[in-house]
């Protein structure tokens, strides 16, 4: 009975929460990972004046676990602990009294990489937000052995604890890259885990696989706030090594079609019968990182598929 209730609850609540991810702030040397100070301020001002609730990731997760309303809840996460966030981003979050969640690239702080925050700056920033871990060496986790993933994670935790005095329970995958094997290992260390798949958050979202929307360049936050989570029952992406053989599942609403996107193949219109869809692209992946996006109007879910070597 409880499960049934939870399945319908998000439909009643109308709007979903959104987790954004930032990297650099006000550093136009790297446009693909940067947001300008002007745009970030515009976004924060918009959210505050339109009654959005900017909360930390742990607050949002608590509300999900307690089945509380998360309508108009927004979380800002910041990956990599770049100096430009400390210099240009932090003052804005302070000005708008907006908490944030900072994912620390531990090796960069420990070994004093030039472009990154020092432990002292991380500690200072944590007065206004909270911290999670973004690995030790920022590796492509799926390319590592199980032992290498465990070693990287333990090292990150060790040095984080040495400086901050506690072990955080939040993690963000470097490059947003993961597969089943990576997730299985990281889950042993952290309860709250963020990916970088575009999507919205509702009360049925697993907190160890939280979708985040990157805001860089001229991304329009107002458009992104309209996104809702698309639910697919029995969602299967069947692959035969590097060939996507079949994508299938069942929607929780009636429609005659949905849109499915695969990197380098593009968008396809896929028929839906009795809420069920089956798409057999037999498409050979071209890149290491591939997105599969399933979308119906503003409802969206996406997955990252990594090519196997
Ligand atoms: Zn990163």
List the helices and strands and how they pair.
Layout lengths: L1 H12 L4 E5 L1 E2 L8 E2 L1 H13 L3 E3 L1 H9 L7 E7 L3 H13 L5 E4 L1 H5 L8 H7 L4 E4 L12 H19 L5 E3 L7 H7 L5 E3 L18 E2 L6 H4 L3 E2 L2 E9 L2 E9 L5 E6 L3 E6 L4 E4 L3 E2 L4 E8 L2 E8 L3
Parallel strand pairs: 1-5, 1-10, 2-3, 4-5, 5-6, 6-7, 8-9, 11-19
Antiparallel strand pairs: 12-13, 13-16, 13-17, 14-15, 14-18, 18-19
Helix pairs in contact: 2-4, 7-8
This protein binds zinc ion (ZN).
Explain this structure to me?
- This protein has about 300 residues and is α/β, with parallel strands linked by helices.
- It has two domains: about 230 residues, Alpha-Beta Barrel (TIM Barrel); about 80 residues, Immunoglobulin-like.
- Helices cover about 30% and strands about 30% of the residues.
- The protein has nine helices and 19 strands.
- Strands 1, 4, 5, 6, 7 and 10 form a six-stranded parallel beta sheet that branches. It has a five-stranded mixed beta sheet with strand order 11-19-18-14-15, with no helix packed on it.
- The protein is globular, with a radius of gyration of 19 Å.
- Bound molecules: zinc ion.
- The site of zinc ion has 5 residues, from loops.
């Amino acid at each position: 009975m409880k499960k049934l209730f939870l399945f319908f609850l998000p439909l009643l609540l109308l709007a979903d929460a959104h987790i954004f991810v930032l990297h650099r702030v006000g550093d136009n040397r790297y446009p693909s990972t940067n947001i300008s100070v002007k745009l970030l301020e515009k976004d924060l001002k918009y959210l505050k004046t339109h009654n959005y609730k900017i909360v930390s990731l742990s607050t949002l997760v608590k509300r999900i676990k307690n089945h509380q309303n998360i309508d108009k809840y927004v979380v800002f996460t910041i990956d990599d602990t770049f100096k430009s966030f400390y210099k240009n981003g932090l003052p804005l979050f302070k000005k708008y009294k907006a908490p944030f969640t900072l994912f620390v690239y531990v090796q960069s702080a420990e070994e004093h990489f030039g472009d990154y925050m020092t432990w002292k700056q991380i500690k200072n920033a944590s007065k206004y937000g909270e911290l999670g871990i973004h690995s030790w060496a920022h590796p492509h986790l799926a390319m590592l052995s199980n032992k290498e993933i465990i070693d990287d994670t333990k090292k990150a935790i060790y040095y984080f604890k040495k400086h901050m005095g506690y072990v955080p329970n939040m993690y963000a995958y470097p490059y947003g890259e993961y597969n089943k094997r990576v997730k299985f290992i990281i889950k042993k260390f952290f309860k709250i885990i963020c990916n970088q798949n575009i999507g919205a958050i509702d009360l049925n979202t697993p907190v160890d696989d939280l979708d985040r929307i990157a805001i860089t360049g001229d991304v329009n936050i107002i458009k992104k706030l309209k996104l809702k989570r698309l639910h697919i029952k029995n969602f299967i992406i069947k692959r035969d090594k590097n060939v996507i053989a079949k994508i299938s599942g069942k929607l929780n609403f009636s429609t005659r079609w949905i849109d499915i996107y695969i990197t380098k193949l593009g968008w396809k219109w896929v028929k839906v019968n009795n809420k069920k869809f089956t798409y057999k692209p037999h498409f050979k992946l071209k890149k290491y990182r591939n997105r599969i996006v399933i979308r119906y109007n503003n409802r969206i879910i996406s997955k990252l598929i990594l090519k196997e070597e």
